[in-house]
Amino acid sequence: MESGLETVCRICGLDVGEVRFDEHGLALFVICGCCGTESGVGDDTVAQARLLRDRWLDAQAVWFDPGTRPAEWELQGQLHKIPSRWR
User: Fold this and answer.
1) CA–CA separation, 58 vs 51, rounded Å?
2) Taking the model in full, what pTM does it have?
3) Nearest Cα to 42, choosing from 33, 59, 24, 55?
4) If DSSP codes are grouped into helix, strand and coil, which group holds residue 63?
5) pLDDT at position 84, please?
6) Which of 4, 15, 22, 45 is deepest in the core (most CB within 10 A)?
7) DSSP secondary structure letters along 35-61
8) Rounded to an integer, what distance in angstroms lies between the CA atom of residue 58 and that of residue 54?
9) Alpha-carbon distance values, 59 to 15, 17, 52, 86 (Å)
10) For residue 55, which phi and psi values (nearest 5 degrees)?
11) 32: DSSP letter
């Protein structure tokens, strides 16, 4: 997170540099190409983020937009990118 801007998905850890929450913590309602979560919709608390993450993982971590999945994608590596505050 730079300058208070959040670019990492709180659910799956995807970071393509797109701002999801501004410097004031306000959601910009960006849909994650990996888990399909829209920033600001159900990811407002750690408990909500964990619930959405568990649901996504239970569904086999299927990509919402498979065309954007990098060839070298690795689930555990991406999950480690989730900011510790949201784990």
Assistant:
1) 10
2) 0.91
3) 55
4) coil
5) 94
6) 15
7) T-PBTTSS-SSHHHHHHHHHHHHHTTT
8) 6
9) 21, 25, 11, 20
10) -65, -45
11) P
Q: How far apart are alpha carbons 16 and 24 in whole angstroms?
A: 20
In the structure, what pLDDT confidence band is assigned to residue 4 with cuts at 50, 70 and 90? confident
Distance (Å, whole) CA 6 – CA 10 = 9
Q: Are the CB atoms for 13 and 80 separated by under 8 Å?
A: yes
Amino acid (1-letter code) at residue 19:
V
pLDDT digits (tens, 9 = 90+) for 5-54: 999 999 999 999 999 999 999 999 999 999 999 999 999 999 999 999 99
Closest CA to 40 of 72, 80, 17, 31: 31
Which amino acid does the sequence have at 47? Answer: A
Show the tokens assigned to 33: 């190409």
Measured distance CA(30)–CA(86) in Å, rounded: 17
